[in-house]
């Protein structure tokens, strides 16, 4: 913490921080609704309920690529995931507890890596897919350790389900959402809007 | 550059903002008058509690033996019930999700882990059952501690304490608190979007249809309106001077000798439970 009030260029503007919080809150709220529905499914499926969760795993990765694509600064993916997990644990009372924060940081790092490698300049389908793949892959190691998956017969099945879910829900879906959000014009004041304005000419902004 | 001098002028002794507030020694009182707000645990420092919770959760990962975990679970139940004054009924009801999750863990591990069969011919292995029970107990221990933490810690105190004692940037802390407010408004927003959809929706047996695609559309509308309001909130916070240093803290959250006692109690209780369970 430096004592000078001079703004370092790496410091995030308050607008970007509040946006990350808001994304965390919205997805936290949607996850909460999703978890309620999923709990019923898990009980109905009995022993397979533990496995059924893997189908939805990619959904938990969404916040990071969306925040990165909008804000386009280093560490935004990790920070956004951790904020979302704070919202889940502290305000929504997620039963996973504080270990969710650790998982979130790992997920965020995995999701962010492909974007960091392109220096936050490329946002094509491939980068998003890789983001979902790495986010799911990295956190799988942590989950496997935490839930003792190593040594189980179904380890490969779990990994496969989570990777596919990561690519589809945690990668490609993020691009669909970001593109549609961009189309509405609400992102014009953020980095994605400025970059878009330079690349593609003026965007028709809808009236508020 | 220019803002450095007034800071030095307002803080002559170099004291932190936590010592300049009016309520430094009085017990913490918050807007929400929860019945548990007067419990011993509720008067402890939130940052210390959060650190203990994280450390304790990580420490459970070291065990794959059900005995110490069972002892820790029993100890945690008693400790939370006594120090946080959580009513027994609330404590039991809050366990339900963990128990459900635990049953799944036990079943999957018992069936899918190779080892000596429990009964000849049955697909259930002793090793799988042991690991499954241990994993389920891990979840229960972390769950009880989380319940104790959440029921004794108002979010506002946690955030102020993290700013004071954990060097969390106020910009993040106040943004998260603003997000907390928005979270409370989220169900109402969802209902508004749903009502607007229902007005335009085609009817099915006299009722508006609401399928998966409509849910997706409602979620997207929620996202768009939330991003718009995030811009407004950021503007409001910035116009109130957030982001300018230094800041003083209103109603600071103290850290004291009793917090050290809490840490020592947890460490001692933890060690005693583990040693006792393994030696028995």
How are the SSEs ordered, and which strands pair?
The complex is a heterodimer of chains A (208) and B (280).
Chain A: H1 14-45, H2 49-56, H3 63-71, H4 76-91, H5 99-117, H6 125-146, H7 155-184, H8 191-200
Chain B: H1 4-10, H2 46-60, H3 66-83, H4 88-112, H5 126-152, H6 155-165, H7 170-200, E1 203-204, E2 207-208, H8 212-239, H9 257-279
Antiparallel strand pairs in B: 1-2
Helix pairs in contact in B: 2-5, 3-5, 3-9, 4-5, 6-7, 7-8
InterPro entries (chain A): ABC_thiamin-permease_prd
Organism (chain A): Promicromonospora sukumoe
Protein name (chain A): Energy-coupling factor transport system substrate-specific component
Descriptive report:
The complex is a heterodimer of chains A (208) and B (280). Chain A is mainly α. Chain A has helices at residues 14-45, 49-56, 63-71, 76-91, 99-117, 125-146, 155-184, 191-200. Chain A has one domain (14-187). Mean pLDDT of chain A is 85; it is low at 1-7. Chain B has two domains: 40-159 and 255-279, no CATH class; 170-200 and 208-240, no CATH class. In chain B, a hairpin with a 2-residue loop joins β1 and β2 (207-208). Chains A and B meet through α1, α2, α4, α5 and α7 of A and α2, α4, α5, α7 and α8 of B.
Concise overview:
The complex is a heterodimer of chains A (208) and B (280). Chain A is mainly α.
